């Protein structure tokens, strides 16, 4: 190759690397949460009943195979990572497996999210095994120690302070209030207040390791998911569940405002998932949806009598459906949620959207 061609090729590679660096808006993303953002942690929990490592999950994923995501393709955690120029944060438990142990790297982030997880430790009783939020934060502390060893104390501190922390949790606690006797002695208001207080404690723990930028999702209109509609003869949303979600979101936003005044160096983007999901349901055509009640994958009324198991059938028009299975959104819904939280208006994200949060 002529010297001028070598120079041109080298210069092109240099420019490409600059573009990649420019595209990467944060050094890493750490994800905490439940099945809405689980990317495969529960695959490694032998006793867990909350798994999605079987067909028809993953039918629209690039590999066309189930990955442990509770949807037909990618979820909001995948899309948010793409938005900030990062690979999807890998499931923490996958990095502990024997094949990955020697080359485990947390430098671009890691996901601790686990199907069935809640803010409270007891919410996974129905599913036998998950990683509740306290356990997820315990694992994060181990990751921070690993980062210090790799990067040194100041290097780790710099990475953590610029990274995104995404927290998507609370739905299982809301479902648990209705289904469990554990909290029968508390009123709905007392229960949601205790949820917000428990979450505050975990956010302060995460912050104490050096993180400063938080994306925190409120609970969606989960009373409108197929499993809840199926309990009503009218197939309408379960208003009791939705009301509990609204109460919790009010407690959560109040807690976050208090946390910001307590920890001056913290910045956050609160995601109004409830309003977004309600808009999908009330104005579906605006978002390209035609089916807001029934699950795409399942059996029985609203495809909600039987979960999305290999024996179930699934719809051919996945893009038209808000819900993939009894509880979880389709890839199409996840994508729109990610789009709205990244560049969204203040009705969905406040006091900052994610793009603004990254720039702080």
**What's the helix-strand series?**
HEHHEHEHHEHHEHHEEEEHEH
Distance between the termini: 46 Å
**Number of extended strands:** 10
Count, helices:
12
Query: Which consecutive residue ranges, at least 5 long each, have pLDDT under 50?
Result: 3-22
Lateral strand order in the biggest sheet: 2-1-3-4-5-10
Over all CA atoms, what is the radius of gyration?
A: 21 Å
Structural class: alpha/beta
**Approximate shape:** globular
**Average predicted local confidence, pLDDT:** 91
Beta percentage is 5-15%
Q: Assign a percent range to the helix content.
A: 40-55%
Major beta sheet, specifics? 6 strands, mixed
List the main descriptive attributes of the protein structure presented here.
two-stranded parallel sheet; 10 strands; 12 helices; 43% helix; disordered N terminus; alpha/beta; single chain; six-stranded mixed β-sheet; 360 residues
Describe this structure in words.
The structure is a single chain. Helices cover 43% and strands 10% of the residues. It contains 12 helices and 10 strands. The protein has a 6-stranded mixed β-sheet. A two-stranded parallel sheet has the order 6-9. Strands 7-8 form a two-stranded antiparallel sheet.
